[in-house]
Amino acid sequence: MQLAVLGLNHKTVPVNIREQFSISPSGIHSGLHHLDTYDGIQEAVILSTCNRTEIYSVLGDGAAGAASLKKFFLDLSGNSQAEDAYFYYYTDRECIRHLFEVSSSLDSLVIGESQILNQVKNAYSLALRAKSTGTLLNTLFHRAITTGKRVRAETHISYNAVSVSYAAVQLAQKVWGTLEGKTALIFGAGQMAELTVRNLVGKGLQTVFVANRHLDRAVKLAETLGGKAVPFDNALETSESADILITSTGSSQYIIQPWEARLLMVRRNQRPLVIIDIAVPRDVDPECGKIQGLQLYNIDDLEAVVADNIRFRQGEAEQARRIVQEELDALEERFQYLSCRPVMVSLSDKAEHIRKREICRALSKLPDISDEEKRIMDHMTRMIVRKMLREPMMHLNESAGTDQESVYKSAVTNLFRLNVRKENLLAKSN
């Protein structure tokens, strides 16, 4: 058996290609329920997000499984053919490493992003419901989810903003400490402004005022944010009560001049004010930043914060990779043991069957013995079987993953005339 992943992502193809190979939840559900129609694919989990589509699988021996896996991928995505260069194909150890890095957000477009671990969990849950997993993929995905959780718990890889809109939140929090109960006024109704305010609201911002030259757009955005639209020309009057101003208009001139800002601060009795200017060209005269009590940030300040935070996350990624390596080594040991498990289970089952049969024969000849005597006999025979099997079991376990594994498995199987049930287990990690 062989673990394998076939996939494409943001590193291998642009978005116009990725969207052609995206698989819907209903498509995943249907595909997994028809998995048995594809020769050589014994288990499968499908992960499809905006940045990747991947099929993790357990394949039978030979090249037929890999060809069948690609056909499965193409059928589910509705494509008749595709360039080989679009895809990556990893097996066994590298397949495990890849999934661990995915679940730890080391393979994400933005290192440390928080969504991917839940997406991995959801993909695995879909496969469980479709009954398309077995021992190998169950073991693999349980460990991958554990690895993702460890990385988040033991590193700061998800700390600090790596988007301009969220960096604005960090700067506002730096000034105010908390955004609970605060008020913001936003100039403009574009996407960046909306993202910034949504991030602020997510941190507890209480009240939002929206000002735009086209009042209808201000009303529409205010409604989506649970805020209130105000006229653009006298919006600064509203800002007397605001704690944060966000400007993101398409104006070719400054919409806030130094004299306006000074007058505003007087009316506020010098109560602190944060202005976040994310417009290009800028909406706020940079001289405003010199006014006491007013803290002004522009797009360059935000991008500098983002750059610092990306460097910080990259540093944390090194620790995350060490965790991935530890979990990879541990899982390989687990798979090495599992490769001998069918023989060990068969040997144990056969010995237990013989023990129970002989106990029954003995008890039929001893009708007058007490329950306590029966318990003693049962315990004694269990211990005899356990001690008799201890040495063969130890040698089998020690041979797992070595050159002697097949020799020991064959010897035990033949000596004890075992009928070994085949399981979807790796014979040996590469």
- Overall 3D shape: elongated
Task: Tell me the name of the CATH homologous superfamily of the largest domain.
Answer: Glutamyl-tRNA reductase, N-terminal domain
Corresponding CATH architecture of the largest domain: 2-Layer Sandwich
How large, in whole angstroms, is the Cα Rg? 32 Å
**What is the β-strand count?**
10
What is the CA–CA distance across the termini? 12 Å
When the domains are counted, the total is 3
Strand order of the largest sheet: 7-6-5-8-9-10
The averaged pLDDT comes out at 88
Question: How much helical structure, as a percent, in the residues?
Answer: 40-55%
CATH class label of the largest domain: Alpha Beta
The major β-sheet equals: 6 strands, parallel
Oligomer: single chain
Annotation field: number of helices: 14
Q: The CATH topology of the largest domain is what? A: Beta Polymerase, domain 2
Plain-language structure description:
53% of the residues lie in helices and 13% in strands. The chain has 430 residues and is an alpha/beta fold. It folds into 3 domains: 153 residues, Beta Polymerase, domain 2 (2-Layer Sandwich), CATH 3.30.460.30; 143 residues, NAD(P)-binding Rossmann-like Domain (Rossmann fold); 76 residues, no CATH class. Helix 7 packs across helix 8. The protein is elongated. The C terminus is likely disordered.
Produce a short descriptive summary:
About 55% of the residues lie in helices and about 15% in strands.
